[in-house]
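To illustrate the input format used throughout this study, we show a single complete record. The first block contains the structure-token representation of the backbone; no residue identities are included at this stage. The design step must infer an amino acid for every position from geometry alone.
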């Protein structure tokens, strides 16, 4: 299944995913563009922030706990554009291909590109290695 949108993720928690997601939800909403928000995994705090930024509820998407048909149904109801905020790190989840609850599972299932948020505090060239590794370019 392929939809229009993207996933916001990071290599770890606390990197700024929610802040970036809220900005990318609020700006188009103010311009009248219909954007739907979702949060990877079981979470009620970030979806409440999404709802405040958009003025309407946010969905949860969890490849580990939700059957594929449920995920597909939720995403099919997305507006013009879907923004999914990841949980923890991009690849964090159970070792079950496509069903482990990782944010990467959602990106792959729905054919969505990933915007990787990197907290580069106190780094220089090291961040380039992380970015290349996460993009699959090499170590």
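Output of the design step:
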């Amino acid at each position: 299944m392929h939809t229009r949108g993207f996933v916001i993720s990071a290599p770890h928690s606390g990197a700024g995913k929610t802040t970036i997601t809220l900005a990318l939800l609020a700006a188009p909403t103010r311009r009248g563009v219909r954007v739907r928000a979702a949060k990877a995994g079981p979470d009620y705090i970030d979806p409440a922030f999404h709802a405040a930024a958009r003025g309407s509820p946010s969905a949860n998407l969890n490849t580990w706990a939700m059957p594929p048909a449920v995920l597909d149904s939720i995403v099919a109801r997305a507006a013009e554009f879907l923004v999914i905020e990841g949980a923890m790190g991009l690849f964090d989840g159970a070792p079950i291909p496509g069903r482990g609850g990782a944010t990467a599972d959602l990106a792959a299932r729905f054919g969505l590109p990933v915007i990787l948020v990197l907290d580069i505090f106190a780094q220089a060239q090291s961040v380039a290695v992380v970015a290349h590794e996460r993009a699959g370019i090499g170590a």
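Structural context for interpreting the output: The first strand starts at residue 5 and ends at 9. The chain has a mean pLDDT of 88.
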